[in-house]
Amino acid sequence: MWDPRQYLAFDDHRARPYFDLVQRVGAEKPRRVVDLGCGPGNLTRTLGDRWPDAALEASDSSPEMVAAARSRGIDARLLDVRDWRPSPDTDVVVTNAVLQWVPEHRELLTAWARELPAGAWLAFQVPGNFDAPSHRAIRTLAGSERWREPLALAELLEPRAVLDPAGYAQLLTTAGCAVDAWETTYLQRLSGPDPVLEWVTGTALTPVRDVLDDSDWSDFRAQLAPVLREAYPQQPDGTTWLPFRRIFVVAQTDLG
Question: pLDDT band for position 158 (50/70/90)?
Fold first, then answer.
């Protein structure tokens, strides 16, 4: 279950990649702008601000996130991204930190590129840090004797969950798009007790929380916390530095 409050605890760090992505979209007067995986809707609103004349379509697979988006005035609907198909007037599609959760997202991207109208923009960003110390620690602990059976059904993200920029560029070029793909490693400055644990609680640990009861969830976090503190030591001034790699793709369909 996604928790909008936990997710928004690091709002600034989560928003920056979104804006770095969207600013590379060159659409001037799109008819319809779509936000797939809109989360709590705080960033979806900025799409409406940029393109006020466009129809704004938003969806998320989490009922909690949809409710949070609706509370912000976004007409979001509950929808699995795998079930979405573009309407004929869709000129911009944005999906931010969503596709890493969808094993078949490469096939989805190819299908969308072929179904979108000529000249449409498809922009997405996915984390590329699944081999980072934080995620290795989660997988190692989840695979230990204590947690192997309780977490057998938890869908933890592996390094192979996403491609590198060249992989996505080739995929979408083959589908007939002009592609701009890149990666950025953000050095995120965190503070407070166990900030990396709190960071991953809002995202990477969601599958773990979904399958554990409250007591086991508390125990898992308690065992993970010292490992993360060692991997990401707090500096004398209270800062904890978290390097975070992200992969960006902006593609435009063939103008015909």
Answer: confident
Q: What are phi and psi of 2, to 5 degrees?
A: -85, 135
Q: How far apart are CA 247 and CA 127, in angstroms?
A: 6
- Name residue, tokens 């996403």: 162
CB neighbours of 185 closer than 8 A, spacing ≥ 6? 243, 244, 245, 246
What SS3 class is residue 161? helix
CATH number of the structural domain spanning residue 86: 3.40.50.150
| Average confidence (pLDDT) over 12-18 | 82
Given a contact cutoff of 8 angstroms between Cβ atoms, the answer to whether 112 and 39 are in contact is no
Kindly state the percentage of the chain with pLDDT values over 70: 95
**181 Cβ neighbours under 8 A, 6+ residues apart:** 165, 166, 168, 169, 247, 248, 249, 250
The pTM assigned to this predicted structure is 0.90
Domain that holds residue 140: 4-252
Predicted confidence (pLDDT) at residue 15 exceeds the cutoff of 80:
yes
Question: To 5 degrees, how large is the angle CA 101–CA 106–CA 112?
Answer: 105
Condensed to tens digits (0 to 9), the pLDDT of residues 40-90 reads 999 999 999 999 999 999 999 999 999 999 999 999 999 999 999 999 999
Give the SS3 label for residue 122.
strand
The pLDDT of residue 6: 41
Helix (H) or strand (E) holding 66: helix 63-71
Q: Are 232 and 134 in contact (CB under 8 A)?
A: yes
CA neighbor of 238 nearest in space, from 200, 194, 192: 192
Number of domain units in the chain: 1
